[in-house]
Amino acid sequence: MYIGVMSFYEPNKRDTEALMIKKAAIAMGHKSIVFRHSNCQLVFDNHHPRVLYKGKKFPQFDVVIPRSSKVSNNDLEASVIKQLQLMEIPVLNSYSAIVRSKNKLRTLQILDHLQIPIPKTAVVRRMEYLKDAIAKVGGLPVIIKTPFGSLGSGVAIVESMRSLYSALDIIWGTSNIILIQEYIKESKGKDIRAFVINGKVVAAMERKARKGDFRSNIGQGGTGRKVTLTKDEEKLAINATKALELNYSGVDIIRNNSHAMIMEVNCNPGLKGIIEATKINIPQELVKGAIAFTKKYK
């Protein structure tokens, strides 16, 4: 097969994880290239709408694996993915699923509607509603988030009203909507990342925040180790992925004393940390998943 890996990195930046997927595909006997989303041009001419790549005909991929790393203007940035779908090119994560999952507020709406457990969350736009929102999620400390962000950015823990106002001076500069979420103290700075492909958990790791931080993201200095999920946690990760209509995802699960909850569902989960923690060849699993998806798609 001819497998395209769409990188959303800028042309002057090396996308090592996209290259890992390409290398895995070639090792499995397939043809593969990494192409930059920024080098794609959309053409609408009332006759033959299409995508060009560097001004030339778009490659005839059998399937495309998108690595959507953008954290803002996602509906615009991902529009090229939608055009590929309209051209009937199989894309492992669709435009709609990517835009949906990149919006933390929309993700919480969907999960809560389907009764998939999440931490108590309140959404506010104005300062005068902060105290009431904090009370509704159980009081201080709380986690505050912006609707968009990745790798632990746009997230802070607040332990007093004084620190809340200080944090909001920074966070409200990037978003006029704030998510206030209960702090799960039983987690002790740990969470679980489950990597889901085509309705199956292929790897899972427990992440632990570095000393002095509460964010367990590997990109923020957290560490990871292989972990075995319970049947309920595995089902939770799969159901959350299906709820957002993603074909592959990284699901962040947090444990408290009574049950597990979904923190986030990522459409562009990192590869390096979970590979190091589990020793599982995730790029190879992604390629296998893309091929299986293509057969089902056709």
Polypeptide structure, described:
This protein is an alpha+beta fold and 298 residues long. It has helices at residues 16-27, 74-77, 79-86, 95-102, 104-113, 130-136, 161-171, 231-243, 272-278, 282-297; strands at residues 2-7, 31-36, 40-43, 50-53, 56-57, 63-67, 121-124, 142-145, 155-158, 178-182, 190-197, 200-208, 223-226, 248-255, 260-266. Strands 13-12-11-14-15 form a 5-stranded antiparallel β-sheet, sandwiched between helices. It is globular. The model has no long low-confidence stretch (mean pLDDT 90).
Q: Total helix count?
A: 10
CATH architectural group of the largest domain:
2-Layer Sandwich
- How would you sum up the major sheet? 5 strands, antiparallel
Q: CATH superfamily of the largest domain, please? A: ATP-grasp fold, B domain
Q: Please give the radius of gyration in angstroms.
A: 20 Å
Strand adjacency order, main sheet:
13-12-11-14-15
Order of helices and strands: EHEEEEEHHHHEHEEHEEEEHEEHH
